[in-house]
Amino acid sequence: MSHFTNILQYAKPYKGYALGHLISNVFYALFGALSFVALIPMLDILFQKDTVVPTVAPVYEGIGSLKDFYKDYLAYQVHIYAQDDPQKALILVVGLIIVLFLLKNIFSYLAYYFMVFLRNGVVRDLRNAVYKKTIELPLSYFSEQRKGDIMARVTTDVATLQYSMLPVLELIAREPLTIIFTIIMMLLISVKLTLFVFIFIPLSGWIISIIGKSLKRKSDRVQSEQGVILSTLEETLTGLRIIKGFNAEGKFNRRFQESSERFFHFSNKLLNRQNLASPTSEFLGILVISILLWYGGQLVLVDQSLDGSSFIAYMGLAYNIMVPAKAISRGFYNIKQGNAAAERIQEIIGAENPLKDKDNAITKTSFDAEIVFKNIYFKYQDDYVLKDFSLTIPKGKKVALVGQSGSGKSTIANLITRFYDVNKGEILIDGINIKDLTTASLRNQLGIVTQDAILFNESIKNNLKLGNDHATDEEVISALKVANAWEFVKDLPQGINTNIGDAGGKLSGGQKQRLSIARAVLKNPPIMVLDEATSALDTESERLVQKALENMMKNRTSIVIAHRLSTIQNADQIIVLNKGEIAEQGRHDELMKKQGVYQKLVDMQSFD
């Protein structure tokens, strides 16, 4: 229930709708109970023709005589209207029943009307909260998760809550109020019979609860397996070219079918357990009604402490109490099922974010002096990727990081952008530890071009405006020209408004990389971080883009992580990394004279 309580917290902004729902349900339950009690005078008219009708208004003598007062008062009003004409009396009573049922259903609609806004609002806010937390969490969180499982939590698990746990909100007020008002009317008709009912209804509820105990576990397995299915599908769509190229369609098909088969079996077990709830509760309800018929018949025929018309109305009320009781038991089933989804959602919402801004974090609006890496140690898991790494980058300088794969080059980019935090040491910008800055203001100072050109299923213009939402079309075109991308963009059917497809699938690798460079150019930050920025370009494009990058990086601080050493020969300083430590540093010609690690790297590559 704790997860259900957490979900209910999202209903707080909708207190007005909740109040409207509650008030409507009060009247719904009241008129629902009265509509059955109104049957008593009609039954008296039909079956008790010799009943003495009061000719004077009855006097209320206390709660103990409320039932008799109610019956006599109705009979008196019928007498005043009908003047001993049974047909008129019947029309009056039937009209009263119609009015009561009409009012009951009007308030039923109003209760559902208010609940629509409450329930859908909670679902919307919950889905938004999960997505917001998803994009706030650090990259390290997702390295431990399947993307498909995250997608399942944001979509399928929220939908599960919408159709399992959240409908219980409708039961919180409606069904208990219906039961309360119905029990009051039942007590007024017969205390003995009502006490008899109280013996069997809890017994029924206990039997139903036994069936529902394993629902949460079965539901959790179903939702987890759905995450595996989505993850397999996402991996298939992402790597379809490789799958086909390696003739691995059969392997992935088997993996998907195995997961689908497990989902099939888990779903069967879950749904069969759910399906057992309805017939079980219905049978128990009929059992209780049957026992009531026997015991109530004794009170009418043997004890004669209850009249026939009251007993028939009582049976209607007993049925009226069984319907909400059944709904409540079904609601508990749904809570058990939804609890698994709520728990999976809470895992994301409640996940700790180690990169969260401090309460007094500084908002930095400019870069004035230098970037300092001071005795940095960092590891992704067990082994340190960087060890005692120290480096100072003055403003306006171009620093290149080179080294073999796994030497820690890209890790520097991950740390300066604060995708990860250092384990030891500190990174300072203008003397301020980046942990003391707001993450947003830190990244506003940075322009990032990654090794993989990450583009979105949007127009070229919208892809470029990601970091500068107010850029004009002229500024967009200017950035494209700097990145040497305008030459192909201008020939596209809709120019900068052309949609480039999922992950830029309509473009070549070199074109995608040039667009990602243009995106960084348009942002126009004081610090550029280029992580293998030219790795996807052919030789001709590389020359053109390299020249554009050099123009862009003039008078700008740049950290260039390069595999192709031809792109960084003009760097102010080259840092050669080896197993997380600085092996050499200096300018290109200085390092070549040393005939050390750098020269070996250069010798492995051919220059034009």
Automatic annotation (TrEMBL):
Domain ABC transporter as annotated: residue spans: 371-604
Family matches, as InterPro entries: AAA+_ATPase, ABC1_TM_dom, ABC1_TM_sf, ABC_transporter-like_ATP-bd, ABC_transporter-like_CS, P-loop_NTPase, Type_1_exporter
GO molecular function, one term: ATP hydrolysis activity
Coiled-coil parts of chain: none
Subcellular location: Cell membrane
Membrane topology: Multi-pass membrane protein
SMART domains from the UniProt entry: AAA
Chief place of localization: membrane
Keywords: ATP-binding, Membrane, Nucleotide-binding, Transmembrane, Transmembrane helix, Transport
Entry GO terms, CC: plasma membrane
Gene3D superfamilies per UniProt: ABC transporter type 1, transmembrane domain (1.20.1560.10), P-loop containing nucleotide triphosphate hydrolases (3.40.50.300)
Membrane spanning stretches: 26-47, 89-115, 179-211, 283-302, 308-328
Domain ABC transmembrane type-1 stretches: 22-337
Annotated PANTHER family: ATP-BINDING CASSETTE SUB-FAMILY B MEMBER 10, MITOCHONDRIAL (PTHR43394:SF1), ATP-DEPENDENT PERMEASE MDL1, MITOCHONDRIAL (PTHR43394)
Protein name: Antibiotic ABC transporter ATP-binding protein
Organism listed in the record: Algibacter mikhailovii
This protein's encoding gene: msbA
